[in-house]
Structure prediction request, 301 residues.
Amino acid sequence: MNLKHLSYFVDISKRESFTKAADDIYVSQSALSKSVKSLEQELNVTLIDRTSKSFNLTEEGRILYVEGEKLLQYIDESQDEIIEKIHRSRRRLRIGIPPVISTVYFSHLLFRFIKQYPNIELEISEVGANIVQNQIDAGSIDIGVVILPIINAENYQIIPAMSSDNALIVNKDHPLASCDEVSLKELEHEDFLILDSTYMLHDRIIKNCEIAGFYPHITTESSQWDFLAEMVAYNQGISILPVPIMERFYSSERIKIIRLKEPEFPWNIAMIFKKEKLITAQMEDFIHFVVNNKDTVKEYT
Prediction:
């Protein structure tokens, strides 16, 4: 059904006059008459009783007038809603960040970004890096902050951000506490306390241990790094955690931080999005802001 013809018909029916409708909506009477005839032909009904001296709708015409007016009102309201959503999407930026990375690096960056770009509506999803990558794939976020390397890297645009190291965390009374550096192979018979599988660090620990020739004996998995650090402090096992978060937030005399080697264990952070994704102005603003300000983070930690 032609919505313009329907709109003309509703205008005519509301005023009960072709002449008044033509004057009010600035359309010729002949054009209005043609639109009504087109509707009648399309619906195979008579809408206006042309045998009557006064303006009268047929039963079919009354139904079309009542229901058509409702339809046009719904379309008008839906159009306004769609336009509002489009305008909101232009202002919205959805970011996925693992809590560990957010705590160490991005809390201050996000605060300063919001201050510099007050018109951007920032939506933050704080979940493990593996879930962040899944959210990128599902299109539920625009930019994900992850730990490199990632699987299927060829499917993403990858923008490096920060870089540090992961380290071995042991109790001060542990036999390895006297070492300045340790190879992963030396941890073959240790009890591992690690972040759970929502974190990329979980998979990387297992993979690097396999590279070193063994599968880690994992006794505890947790989504909370501070819980793992406390477990180590109570000598319940060893853990591997990012150096920045341990140095910034955990200063226990019961814990020793030891450099890892063979293989080395970097903590490389990057921003990712799907290669085929349209890059919005908000995404560009955020990426440029992080790249240009990443080296200033240490001033705030």
User: Anything to note?
Assistant: The chain is about 45% helix and 25% strand. The CA atoms of residues 5 and 34 lie 9 Å apart. The longest strand covers residues 156-171.
